[in-house]
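S., here's the first fold you wanted:
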Amino acid sequence: MTVDTSAATTVVAGAAAAQSAGKMAQDDGEIIVTTTAQKRFENIQNVPLAVQVVTPAQLEAQGVRNFQDLGKVAPSLTIRPAEHPVNSNVSLRGVGTFAFGIGVESSVAVTVDGVPLAFQARAFTDLPDVAQIEVLRGPQSTLYGKAASAGLIKIMTTQPTNDFHVKANLLATDDSEYGGSFSVTGPINDKLGYVFSASYSNWDGNVKNLFNGKQVNGRETLNSRGKLRWRATPDVTFTLSGNYLNGNTTVGRPFIRLDPNGYLRAQPGLKPAVVLPGVQVGPSNQTVSNNYDSRTKYWGWGTMLRTDVNIGKMNILGLTSYDRFRLDDYLDHDDTSAPGLFGTNTQIGAFKSRLFTQEIRLLSPGTDAFRYALGIYYANTAFKRPFLRGPAFSPADWYATSGSRQIAAFGQIDWEFVKNLTATVGGRAQNERVQYTFTDNRAKGSWNGHASDNATTYRLGLQYQATRDIMVFGSYATGYKGQTYDLTTGFNQLRANAGPIKPETSKDKEFGIRTQFFDRHMTFNVTYFDTNYKNLQAQTLEPLPDGTANFRLTNVGGLNTKGLEFESAVRVTRDLTISGAATYLDATYTSFPAAPCYPRQTLAAGCIPKGTTGYQVLTGTRAVQSPEWKTSASIEYAPAVTEKLNGVLQASWQYQGSVYFAARDPEQFQPAYSIFNLSAGIRDHKRAWEAALFVNNLFDKQYYGSVVNSAGNFNIAPVAGSAFVLATQAVLPRDFRRYAGIRFGLNY
């Protein structure tokens, strides 16, 4: 659990925070966090689920302004950035979807105001106008329209209020980042209310392209959202909302290791000094030399109609949504400025998505001993992907489409059959139909196909409220991720004949305790989990005879993930609050008999020769992107300095254990690291405004968001087919180097 660390305030999240537009109530120091994890506003201490609530104040204290940085405040969550958002990955408890193709369902779903996103790339942007974020860990299928086999990230934005409110934030840093956001909410009359919000951010990046002198690895984003709420009658409310997003990123992946005697694509004369002029390769390198502007640009819009109807004590909720999104990607595929044809290999494509959803839920009163939530869900998703790569090597030219239609019924019953003892039974039944087309313009081949599948999942649980402040629970749940097709480079008749990739399923056991002490001034929660995945869907490499490789999605076998999750918060005094969370994770492949070898892997390192390529056995190996320990902690001291002003001192710490981005590959290994952030400022005692100076990555610790083994592009001799040499690139995080800034917030 993560709480707002403002002194002398009750931590109120969810709709309560949204409705009050961020205003906090004064209290005697109790720590109270509410969640909507079970579709009702409840104290998180009474919810028998593994859920973490993150407030805007916590995001601010930890320096989190973008979706890809959420892992800094949620230890069970690991987000790996890539050269563009589609290739990024989100993992919960060591489980995520490593896939570059279209139409692949995510193990970790993302919803905004209750509506799912078509694919995760849609989420990789700023986090404007957030009321709260909830991270639900483990399979989710009995309470939500969109099922998820590993977890769910719920983003909730500000709702219309009965009073006029204005929120605004400004930020500027010493490394050329600047941005601002605002939201205005209030009534038009006694039946109509509104919200309008917008944000803009711009950062040049922390990598310099020596070829043209431009800064890269940066981003620019514009977000806007509007809502109109109409109380047609005391029991019927309609909320119409719309959003628009427009942005771009620049790409720069510096070489951090590179054999100076290698040859680009085994071409005579193309050594690193020639193809990367001026670049000083090393662990702290922040330069590239690309003769093509690697970048992405994206835009999207969506609309949603929410209908709330009260019939007696019951509530009927309807969610109707439509969303469109497009991302164009342009990549310097050779990542050099080499002269000649081999220095002009590019990769150009687009991701286009369209999503329509309809969900209806029926909720009983949350105070009854017998409670239920029932729902039906319909979704229709369509993707398009044109792709072109070449001309010198790894040529590709294809166009693919993917579509899915899903119908599901889900529900959960909670029954307090004995005082303080509650049993939970939930289930979900769904039918999904998937279809695709794939046209390879080089091979002059065209394929299409479709498949359908029925699936059921369930959840059983028991909860005991031992005392007012101690609750224990246990649950057993199953999860499901639907079948799909591997629509990537190299699709051919063999893949078409193989049919869809099998569904991924999971079985999860959880036990937890929720406690509060010292008149609820201290909270301490622990959750144990143990989850088995079967037919795990994951991205692998398909080596080709020319030394290149195609990325493939397939069923790689099984995975077990288990561990402990800790969350705590302490109100030491009225002015001093400490909070933290930690996850211990043991994620291991239980069956992975034929994984591709990583570049330059030897027989001694486990690469078993087979034909012109080889394979390795990963059974018993730790899963990728699963640090053993990950922690997050923050402290805030906010004493009164005058009758109307409080000083504010905030410090935060983020620790991540060592992690592999590709199994066993020493070139794709990130050692453990710690990051410290510090800020100091002043605020109005009612939090009407706040100004602060901050320093992120205080001790200037260098680490990598992701590491790429590029050995396949460099050979030991100018002879085709010669051995590969060391070549490693990194994706640098926003705080790769220490930076400072100023922020100002207004909450009127």
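And the second, which I think is the more interesting of the pair:
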Amino acid sequence: MEAGEDFGPWLARQLKLADMTQTELAQAVDVTRAAVSAWITGRAAPRPETIERIARALNTDLATVHTRTTDTQAGLPVGWYHRPGHADGGRELGNAAAFAFDADVEVLARETCQNSLDERLIANGQPVRVRYTLHELTGETLARFREAIQWDDLFPHYEAAAAQEQKVGRVIDAGLRDMYEHDRLVLLRVDDYNAAGLTGDDYDDGRFAAVVRRQLDSHKSGSSAGGSYGLGKATLWATSRLGLVLMNSTLSEPHEGRAERRLVGRLDLPWRQVHGKPWAGPAWLGRPDPDSPGAAVARSWWADEETVESLHLKRESGEPGTSFLIVGAHDVASLADDSPAPDGDEGEDDDSIQRMHRRLVRALGKNFWAAMTGGGDQLPLLEASVRTLRNGDVVLAEQRVDPAVAQPSRTRALKAFLDGTTVEQLTESGQVAATTVPLSLPARGGGRASLGEHRAVLLVTDAEDADGKSNRVAAMRGNRMTVRDVVVPSLSMSNPFQAVLLAGAAAGPQAPFAAEAEEFLRAAEPPEHNKWGQTEELTLTYSPSAYRRIASLTRETNAAIKELVARPKKRPKAGGGRLAPKLTVGAGKKRPRLSAATLPVLEELDAQVLDGGAWQVIGEIRIPAGGHTWRLVPVAKFDVRSGPRPTIAWAELVGVDNCQVVDGTLRFSDEARSATFRGVTDPTTHAVKTSLSGLVVELRAGEGESRS
């Protein structure tokens, strides 16, 4: 009998699904109970004429018994299983993991794309392909989808959850009102291909259980994985105003003899009471598990093509990977997105799905341009695209994210590194200079011992206008997702540039201690994976002072960049030194009055704690027209919950770009539209231990202030 799954395990499961005993099957097919037992244990196989009788007994066709690539239609139907309320009366009024992230599609793109990169099948050398599909359903199309997800069974639970006066209840209520008042529902589907898929058992350790059944379980495939907290998947449910995500997975490793169309749904609601009975929170869409008491627990099931189509979960091919369907997707941040549409003003019809489309494209380009870049004999790690539909019709055609458009200078730099065409010094426009910077790796288990020195690769090239802000360094490790993107301080004179720091496995196969650097930097990342610094994981795994190794890496990186890009200052023209004191700019004119509309704004603040306990801050200020006439004073204060903030003295305050410090006051260069300053606090004036405090910097002027 040639088929996918062995006959014995398949038959045993069908009997459970049909609530049929071995004795009852034996009577139906006219054999002994011992014969059925022998089939199930694999000691014997039924004859062809007996297989026909087995198919009739299970109320299925002969092909299903022969192929055994799907379950029979006999037995318990697919439905929703809601977790009963706790016996001790405990209540969870929402999924705490979902509160770690905002309902923001840019956050969703970062977390889901990172997860797909982590699950890329690397044996074939091909990139993982991720597609985001926004799909608005209205009218009859929406009605058919609600029927497919058994909406009538869900609605009493939604109604009870929405009536509760707490955050999750308010979000659900808004989602229900939007759907019923406007007769629309937004689906956001995330498909990945050439990925592992949700492999493993429904309950035991594995990818499926980590995503569908558990919280804070990070089941990753390799040491260079981006995720480490098991929180990223929560962004899927956080992006749904209905707390509902459906999944269809094609497995890279067969389960129960099958690989395609493994379906399951998970609903995250707060504790609620429906028809007088308490329910704990989560619910699952699946087939009742015959091994659970009373077959009351739902597990994944192998769906047919018709079911997959009705749930908007049909995949393009049989390539391994997973499709996540976020039901009732929303993006709070897109409501404030005032960036122009590519084709100009689209009026009121430029609704949320089109703004969400643009924000997804921007986020993918910003965070994953390096993963999408290939060179030499290396293909990109990632391909990503976004498309938008309404009732199946194209609203915005599929747009593949191009790293050379999103980050042209940095893409050029990384490609030069992969192609082996970098230079030691920048002498011509368009060149990419490469050097290495040291990262001293601590030994595990505490103490000051060093494991060895990793050499991270630093790339520097000229900046282009399309890059956005210049004079910055983007840092990453093995999966080439941007972790840190900060301004380089203390550059007196230089051409605009962009820098890239490749650490860990990203530095290439020849980099010493690459695997150890991956582990160290991964432990130094918070759940948002947006910086390297002191974390609890870093302290517990290495030592309380391990973060200082990262501060040293930052200093070495900045110093290396300055060597590559700094230009010598020009000497003043003859006589300029004597004439300068006699020249007066703007004499007799009144300084413009500062207002909320014209006040310089502290747009960005990068801070770190130095070895001596001092705070070092680097601030970027946006300057409106006429800014050279203004005088602003940076003031450092400790952040406290109540009462006045204690002021901290500066040990050092200097102008970095387009400004200078005179008597503690910032003075801006003529025609400057942005400026950068650097300050180091005096630890002797700290009223609170630096490691236990937060910092606030205020820009004070005669008639206002700007905080960050």
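Why I say that: Residues 224-230, 344-350, 568-597, 702-708 have pLDDT under 50 and may be disordered. DSSP finds 19 helices and 27 strands in the chain.

Talk tomorrow,
H.
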